[in-house]
Structures are given as structure tokens and as C-alpha cells.
Amino acid sequence: MSEKTYKPGNYPDLPPPPGTVGVYGWVRQNLFSSISNSLLTIISVVLLYYLIDGIIGWFFLDAVFDAESKIACRKIDDGACWAVITRRVGQFVYGFYPELERWRIDITFLTMFLAFAPLLYPDIPKRKWLLYFSAFYPFFAFVLIMGGYFGLQKIEYSLFGGFMLTVILGVCGIVCSLPLGILLALGRQSNLTVVRTLSVCFIEFMRGVPLITLLFVASSMLNYFLPPGTNFSILVRVIIMFTFFSAAYIAEVIRGGIQAIPKGQYEAADALGMNYWQKTRFITLPQALKISIPGIVNTFIGLYKDTTLVVVIGLLDPLGIGRAALADTKWNGLSTETYLFVALFFFVSCFAMSRYSLWLENKLNTDKK
Amino acid sequence: MKTKMLLAGVTAGVMFAGSVLASTLDDVRARGKLNCIINTGLAGFAAPDDKGNWTGFDVDFCKAVAAATLGDASKVNYTTATGKTRFTKLAAGEGEILSRNTTWTFSRDVDLSQTFIGVNYYDGQGFMVPKSLGVKSAKGLDGASVCIQTGTTTELNLAEYFKGNNIKYNPVPIETNAEAQELYKAGRCDVYTTDASGLYATMMSFDNPSDHMVLPEIVSKEPLGPVVRHGDDQWADIVSWVLRAMMAAEEKGITSKNVKELAAKDNKDKEINRLLGKDPLQGLSKLGLSPDWAVNVISQVGNYQESFEKHLFPLTIKRGMNALYRDGGLHYIPPIK
Q1: Residues whose CB falls within 8 Å of the CB of residue B116, separated by 6 or more in sequence, listed in order
Q2: Domain that holds residue A50
Q3: Among candidates B41, B204, B207 on the partner chain, residue whose Cβ is nearest the Cβ of A323
Q4: What total number of domains does chain A contain?
Q5: Which homologous superfamily is B125-220 in?
Q6: How confident is the model at residue A223 (pLDDT cuts 50, 70, 90)?
Q7: B34 φ, ψ (degrees, to nearest 5)
Q8: CA A208, CA A180: separation in Å to the nearest integer?
């Protein structure tokens, strides 16, 4: 501390003592404050160096980005052989969708953001017009992806695969399960015995059965119930199962939100003479949904990742495409590269969802903190 | 009102049932495409290439049937199935053929109401271990952990063999071949067991194949073959004779290169003439096939040998049991007359 003395009420703004601010100060305070601390810092830096050097080397410096096969890769360098990805990126993204028709998927995917924008961001300009497009979008997407109308070539579902399949399953499941989940949550709280019993049965049954069992039901059992030859595509069956499964979870998350609303809110609504639907629409749901956002997004992320389970019923999601690539004698054995690539895709999608939910929470935050 | 709706439902059901009664061949021709159920990925037997075209030994057979029935080997829709879902997919009509390295057993044939139309690959279950384990025989595997694909005959064979020899083991259940490779490489299991063909394919994928070995014991018979549903003998005949035509072509030296030439001229060997449509083959019309069916198969897909060498030789799989009987193998083809 400075040795100078000042008269009371006459302190000038002095700079902080040297060595306590700036990079130097930070390093001294946090990394080298004592002997043991300094030792730890040095050891950590050395370890980090080797670790990062190895990782960067394997990922980038020694990696091969294009080659004919795994053997060709190994001849060039001994790092990661990303050629298995670069050579098959089309398959990872579109599955076996015919190459000439892939523009249809691109358009569907890009317009999806346009359709979702007014639903996800309430402040967007021209929201009303965009909402019309959102309502029309499911039909638009269905026709464009499946084909068979307006001179578009009809595409068999067995050609679907890769990230496209994940996004289709995930988005359909998410979009359909939210309204169903809300209805189930309201049904469970209902005073009408029949509605309540049915909701409880549905929720408890769906939550009590593993998703993989439901997928097997979708893939095999339903065929026995339906008349043979009915072309009820497995894709639709799987989407229905995903929707039911996650709707049950969503319902419970939202029920938690509904029960967290203070009783005074309902009483106030009753006092204002609101009927059930008014009360639900203006009092219950806005508050309940806001409370349940983290839980809902949590369920969605879970659902999105669960789509990889379809591999057990023979649908080729990115993981399945990766495994099929590994079965090619050219690429046999490059599992690390394949799985890392698929993991990256899932991380990016799930992280985006999680960020959106944080943004929404902050936007809707009315707590007086 | 209710009865009316019920009646409508029943009528619809009967109509659907009616459409099923139409022959499988007619269904395939009306659709213009053959639906074929294949593996989700098994080296040499079924795997997509970089362009997304399925290739492999089992895939070739789908193509051969499409060539025989539709005249074009490329008119196939592939549906992938895992070991657990393959039979239900076939039973549910998602495919006309199951060509997915499926072992022919009594209960699968009889109990599941399927028809195995022949054997296109004789396999047997073996064990692969790292050489560092120091085991020379499967009898020395006491206490080992074994990676095993669930829902397959190999699972049952393993249990029977080890129980019969009083060997204890820890099964590590897995879903696919690729997963097994990972677990085995990571040392999660000491032994990997599946059909010997699969073991060789797996070994090829390792960075150092010479560090591993396949033990001498082959503990089971695994005759792998294509499967069709019960109830349409015409279709079963077509599929089985396509397989035999491919083998007969190898026996008679007909290849994809010389088939057009042989089909055009009058051969001394009358069996070649009958196979290639030069001389009439009695009963072919009952099968609903055109006289050039075998020419289509051999010119577009190749004979048995060509398919085998193209897909399985890269995995260092030898002909062995899968040679023709005259070369000491098990494939003995009924005469085409």
C-alpha cells in the first residue's frame, strides 16, 4: 500500500499497486501464488501440451481428408482418416435418397427455419404472414419429401436415412408431442372422470414401457394387427410411437408446471368469471408453460437423441449409416472417425436447442429479482 | 350404422386379403421392383459403397432374382433389417425375399412359416482371440468373456457348446457386428464369436490382423440361405432356381462375359442350351419366367463363382465348403432338364 498520507476528504484516485492488475497480476495471483501452486501450474501446462498436441495432430495435422480407402489413408499419414466421411458425406446427410432429388430435401430443410421462425421468435416482422406459411408447411414438406404429386418422383421410405431421417423423426416427434402433451396434462387435471382416467392410463402406460419396446411394436406388432399389404410406412409408425412416448413425458413436465401455479391465480380467474377454456388459455397455460420450459426442452433433447434407437429396427439413421460404412471393406475399422462425426452432429443440434431454451427463459422471465 | 361400418371394414379386409392372394410374382411385376430384405451392414455380404449402392454377396442374389423376374438387376428396393426384425419384416410383407445371411434351422423353417430355398453359403461358427491370450483351442476358454450378437443362432450354439464341454463363460451381449469389433478391440471381451466368414471380415478391419487368430474349432453348422414366405410355391421355385442357375452356370463355365455368346449359338452341351433358353425347358412357363431369364441373371450379375470372388475374396475367405461338389465342396446342383 502507498505510504503517503492524505488529508481527510482529499484522496486522489490512485492507480492500483503494480503487480496486482493486468495479465501479470492475474497470472501471479491465480497461477503462481505459492510454490505448490506454481508446481501444479507447470505440470498442468506440460500435460495439456502433450494432450492438445496429440489431439490436434490426430484430428488435423496428421489427418487424411481424402483418399480412396483406409489403406490409402494409412499410406499417406497415420492420423484420423476423414476420407470415410468426405467420401460418404452425401450418405450421412441424405441416406440413400436419390442424388438428383436431393434438392428437395435442401429446400424442405431451409424452409423449415422460415416455418419455425414465427413460432420460435414472437417479435419477428411480418409474423402473421409467416404463420400462414407455418400452417401450410407440413403439407408442403410431406409432398416435397415423399413425392408422388405434382410430377415429383415418389421416393420409397427405405431410401431415407442419415441426418435427414434424424431431423424428420425428431422434428415430427417434437412438433406433434407438445400439443398432445399439453392436452394430456390438462386431461390429467380434469374433473371429468373419463378424461382423467384415459389420460392417466395413457401417460402411465407410455412411461412404463421402454421406448425400444414401442419401436419393436411399431416395426413388427402393428403389421399383425393391420391387414397385410397395407402400405402404412414404417416411418409413420415410428413417428407415432416417438410422439406418444415423448407426449407422456411432456404431459408430466407440464403437470408439474400447472401445479406450481399458486392457487390464488385460479381463484382470481374464477372471481373474474372466466370459464374453463378462458382460464386455461389466459391464466394456467402461459404460466405453466413458462415454468416448464427447461423440462420440456430436456424431454425434446432426449427424444432427439433417442431417434438413434431406430437402428435396432433396421432404419439407417446417421449411426446406422456409419455402421454400414464400416461394413464396406474399403473403410472397415474406422469407427472412431465415424462415431466422432455423428457425435458432433448431435452435439450441434442439441446445443442449439438448449441455447434457444435459455434465450426463451430469459425473455419470458418476469421474476422480480 | 354400426353394422354398416363393420361390414365396410370386413369388405375392406377381404379385399386386402384378396390382393395378398395374388401371386408374389404378379405383385413384383405390377410394382416393377423387387423388395429385398438385407443386412444393415456386413462386410462382403451387404454394405453400401461410397455412392450409396448396396453391394455384396447377399445383395447380388437380390439383383439376380430381379434380373430373372423383371429383366433388370437394378430394379430392387433394399430394406435393411437387424437379426431381430428380419423375420417379422418378411412375414409382414416388407420384402419378397430375405437375403440376409440367415441360418437354415428346423424351427425357423417350420415354426415361423418360412421357406428356405437353398444354401448360398455354408458357414460355421468359430472363435477369434488375440494371440496374446495364449489360447490354442476353444476348450481353453474357461472363464473368458465372449462378445455375442443377440437374437442369432450363434448365441444358442455358444451356450450349447460351452455347456457341453463344461466351460464357464461371461456373455457380453451386443447388437451389431460393428459394435462387437469395437468391444473386442477395446479388450472388453476376450473372445469374439460369430460365423467364420464374419470373423475373417472383422480381422481384416484391424490395423494388425496378424495379432489375432481364429481358433480351429468350428462349433456349428450354419447353412446360410435366402428365405421366402410360406404359401407361394411358384415364387419359392423361382427364387431357388435362380440360385441354382447361378451355380449351374459356374459348373458349365458360363460367365457374364461369355453368356451372350453361348446363348446365341447351339452348344454341344444341351444343358447350357436349356438354361440359356436356346432349347425349350419344360415347365418354365409355369414359373412365369421368360426364356432368357438365366441369361439376364448371368449377364447382369454373374455366376456363383464371379459373385463369390468379387465380394468374398477381398476378405480372404476361401471357397472351401462353398466350392462345387466336383471341386470338393458342398454345392451339388440338380440337373436343369
Answers
A1: B102, B104, B108, B109, B225, B226, B227
A2: 37-84
A3: B41
A4: 2
A5: Periplasmic binding protein-like II (3.40.190.10)
A6: low
A7: -95, 130
A8: 18
The predicted model gives A103-126 an average pLDDT of 86
- Nearest-Cα distance to chain A for B120, in Å, is 20
Q: For residue A348, is it within any domain?
A: yes
Distance from CA of A101 to the nearest CA of B (A): 14
Q: pLDDT at residue B5 above 70? A: no
CA B328 – CA B320 distance, rounded (Å): 8
Cα A353 to chain centroid, rounded: 5
| A88/B contact by beta carbon, under 8 A | yes
Residues A201 and A347 in one domain: yes
| Test the A interface: residue of B40, B42, B59 with most A CBs within 10 Å | B40
Q: Is A320 on the interface with B (CB under 8 A)?
A: yes
For residues A304 and A285, membership in a common domain is answered with yes
| Together in a domain, A53 and A195 | no
What are the φ and ψ backbone dihedral angles of B255, each rounded to 5 degrees? -120, 175
Q: What is the pTM of this model?
A: 0.81
ipTM: 0.77
Q: What are the extents of the domains in chain B?
A: 24-122+223-327, 125-220
Chain A touched by B78 (CB under 8 Å): yes
* Co-location of A260 and A296 in the same domain: yes
Are A214 and A167 in a shared domain?
yes
Of A147-161, A345-359, B70-84, B276-290, least confident by mean pLDDT is A147-161
Q: CA B216: distance to chain centroid?
A: 24
Q: What is the rounded average pLDDT of the residues B11-34?
A: 69
Q: What is the pLDDT of residues B105-135, one digit of tens each?
A: 898 988 888 999 999 999 988 899 998 888 8
Q: Which three cell numbers stand for residue A280?
A: 386455461
User: Residue A189: inside a domain, yes or no?
Assistant: yes
**Å from A39 to nearest chain B CA?**
35
At A181-220, the pLDDT tens digits run 999 999 998 889 999 999 999 999 999 999 988 888 887 7
Residue B238's pLDDT is 94
**Nearest residue of A to residue B184, measured between CA atoms:** A333
- Determine the length of chain B: 337
Mean pLDDT over A112-123 rounds to: 85
Q: Does B19 touch chain A (CB under 8 A)?
A: yes
As a dihedral over the C-alpha atoms of residue A233, residue A238, residue A240, residue A246, rounded to 10 degrees, the angle is -170
**Which of B52, B77, B177 has the CB atom closest to A158's CB atom?**
B77
CATH architecture of B24-122+223-327: 3-Layer(aba) Sandwich (3.40)
The count of CB pairs under 8 A between chains A and B is: 123
Mutant choice from A319, A323, A330, A336 vs B, greatest count of B C-beta within 10 A: A323
Chain B contacts of A71, Cβ < 8 Å? none
Across the interface, whether the CB atoms of A228 and B48 are under 8 A apart is answered: no
Does the residue A360 lie in any domain? Answer: yes
pLDDT at B179 (0 to 100): 78
Residues within 8 A of B (CB atoms), A 196-235 only: 216, 219-220, 223-224, 227-230, 234
Three cell numbers at A91? Answer: 450418405
Across the interface, of B43, B52, B176, the residue whose CB is closest to A96 is B52
Interval A231-244 mean pLDDT:
84
Which three cell numbers, joined as nine digits, stand for B208? Answer: 494388425
Is the pLDDT assigned to residue B6 strictly greater than 50?
no
Amino acid found at A254: I
- Within a domain: A14: no
The amino acid that residue B117 corresponds to is I
Q: Helix or strand or coil: residue A233? A: coil
- Regarding whether A275 and A194 lie in a shared domain, the answer is yes
CA dist B44 → A107, A208, B39, B201, B227 (Å): 36, 41, 11, 8, 19
Among residues A61, A84, A107, the one where a domain terminates is: A84
Q: Which of residues 44-73 of A touch B (CB under 8 A)?
A: none
